[in-house]
């Protein structure tokens, strides 16, 4: 880290800042995005998502603590009724002028099966709280996303996933769920009972009702080695199929304008525990920002400085139970688009995305994430029926993110991608009907559970074509 800082600081000393910095100052002035008023004219309080681009002034807020109270809200509170988890989605799934409903008071474990490694969990539980609770009963989730701030209900809402060729997204490990509907029913669903609802509502966008409880197929606590290395991007992309085959979890972050990639692997081990050290990702991201600020319009300089700054970065290792290592802290805010592509299309699409960004968007500095996810059979799962390679492109929260739609999305769509439901995309109902073989079946289940569209805000009306 010290080396990186020295090299990047050296850029200023070498006079690069005089050129790049002056231009950069005009283009990349660090300006806080404007924040909407804390209250609207009727005194309603502001709700915002994590990145700050979605906001709303709900007329009513509800935090039921039982299924009966939940049903009462769903039937009687002013619509649209929108469930919220921890507000980490980028798309407009949550905003409502009606009722904002949280399950924060419906959290924790309710039962477990020690032999089958299953646990039943209330849907308001945050993934970060679930880790230690499951560890107490000798279990952990088979996989976890990049952060663990999400609620379980919110994670299922959007098909939240981690990485690993043989590992499914979280909903792929759901064996049963209970869902309260706006008609006033509470349905217990699994592959044998209310099977259509089970298939349609494992990934549900909070549009089918509210999931109150979930039974997860977990694994026994497993010690893993997590290893992070910085390598040449071309080599990593070339080796990707091999890396996928060799590691339980693997992902890489392609760092635009540098020719470098950070590769993260996780594998089972019997090595002694080596707790994770202090998080260095934030420093690395902010150093990439500094490099962009100083040399953004000088791509050759930017690349060679990055190569020397990061080339000696030592491999970072940690050994511990998986739930302690798989997720990270992400305090630097950003906006994001992620698409899930047929695995065989992933690297070709990524090459195009990087080339387009490096040609047109010198302001981009956030690493681009590539992951792999096993297929499943939930009707609205982006991984339905196909092993997927994902590509996630980020924009610093102070920077313009329109390029995600203009430059990146057309490439990801051309390669057959399906968007992450919680991350930025411009698709509408007809697009989803073409991408999801069971989309019409899911629509029919949704109409059956919520015939009056009480759960639909404007965004969801465009997804589900509800008039
Ligand atoms: C820093 C950061 C890192 C991320 N990393 C990853 C990652 O590694 N992998 C990944 O796949 N995604 C990732 N995401 C996206 C995130 O996992 C999803 O957007 C997830 O849905 C957020 O969960 P939440 O609890 O904040 O839900 P919210 O965003 O609050 O809600 C998401 C959806 O779930 C619905 N919902 C919430 N609770 C319920 C319920 N009980 N019943 C029915 N519907 C409900 C809401 O109505 C909404 O439609 C990341 C996001 C951020 C900001």
Structure description:
- The chain is of the alpha+beta class and 467 residues long.
- It has 3 domains: 56 residues, 2-Layer Sandwich (Uridine Diphospho-n-acetylenolpyruvylglucosamine Reductase, domain 2), CATH 3.30.43; 112 residues, Uridine Diphospho-n-acetylenolpyruvylglucosamine Reductase, domain 3, CATH 3.30.465.10; 197 residues, 3-Layer(aba) Sandwich (Vanillyl-alcohol Oxidase, Chain A, domain 3).
- The chain is 34% helix and 23% strand.
- It contains 15 helices and 20 strands.
- It has an 8-stranded antiparallel beta sheet with strand order 16-13-15-14-18-19-17-20. A 5-stranded antiparallel beta sheet has the order 6-7-11-9-10. A 3-stranded parallel beta sheet has the order 3-5-4, with no helix packed on it.
- The chain is globular, with a radius of gyration of 22 Å.
- About 2% of the residues have low confidence.
- Bound molecules: flavin-adenine dinucleotide (FAD).
- The site of flavin-adenine dinucleotide has 33 residues, from strand 4, helix 5 and strand 11.
């Amino acid at each position: 880290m010290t080396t990186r800082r020295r090299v990047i600081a050296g850029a200023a000393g070498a006079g690069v800042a005089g050129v790049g910095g002056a231009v950069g100052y005009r283009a990349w002035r660090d300006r806080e995005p404007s924040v909407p008023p804390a209250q609207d004219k009727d005194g309603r309080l502001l709700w915002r998502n994590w990145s700050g681009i979605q906001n709303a002034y709900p007329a009513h807020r509800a935090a039921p603590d039982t299924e009966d109270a939940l049903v009462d809200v769903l039937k009687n509170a002013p619509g649209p009724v929108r469930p919220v988890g921890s507000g980490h989605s980028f798309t407009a799934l949550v905003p409502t002028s009606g009722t904002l409903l949280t399950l924060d008071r419906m959290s924790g474990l309710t039962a477990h099966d020690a032999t089958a490694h299953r646990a039943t969990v209330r849907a308001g539980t945050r993934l970060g709280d679930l880790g230690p609770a499951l560890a107490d009963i000798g279990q952990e989730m088979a996989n976890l996303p990049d952060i663990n701030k999400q609620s379980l209900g919110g994670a299922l809402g959007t098909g939240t996933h981690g990485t690993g060729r043989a590992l499914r997204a979280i909903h792929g490990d759901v064996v049963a769920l209970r869902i309260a509907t706006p008609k006033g029913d509470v349905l217990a669903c699994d592959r044998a009972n209310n099977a259509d609802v089970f298939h349609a509502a494992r990934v549900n966008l909070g549009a089918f009702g509210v999931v109150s409880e979930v039974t997860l197929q977990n694994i026994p606590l497993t010690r893993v080695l997590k290893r992070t290395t910085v390598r040449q991007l071309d080599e990593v992309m070339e080796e990707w199929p091999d890396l996928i085959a060799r590691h339980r979890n693997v992902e890489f972050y392609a760092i635009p304008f540098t020719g470098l990639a950070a590769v993260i692997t996780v594998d089972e081990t019997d090595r002694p525990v080596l707790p994770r050290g202090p998080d260095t990702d934030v420093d690395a991201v902010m150093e990439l920002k500094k490099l962009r600020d100083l040399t953004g319009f000088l791509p050759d300089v930017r690349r060679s400085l990055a190569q020397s700054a990061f080339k000696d970065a030592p491999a970072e290792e940690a050994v511990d139970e998986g739930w302690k290592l798989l997720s990270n802290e992400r305090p630097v805010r950003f906006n994001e688009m992620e698409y899930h592509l047929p695995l065989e299309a992933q690297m070709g699409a990524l090459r195009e995305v990087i080339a387009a960004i490096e040609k047109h968007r010198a302001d981009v500095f956030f690493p681009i994430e590539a992951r792999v996810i096993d297929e499943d059979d939930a009707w609205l799962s982006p991984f339905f029926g196909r092993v997927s390679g994902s590509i996630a492109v980020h924009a610093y929260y102070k920077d313009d993110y329109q390029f995600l739609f203009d430059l990146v999305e057309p490439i990801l769509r051309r390669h057959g991608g399906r968007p992450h439901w919680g991350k930025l995309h411009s698709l509408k109902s007809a697009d989803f009907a073409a991408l999801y073989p069971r989309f019409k079946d899911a629509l029919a289940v949704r109409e059956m559970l919520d015939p009056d569209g009480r759960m639909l805000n404007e965004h969801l009306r465009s997804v589900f074509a509800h008039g």
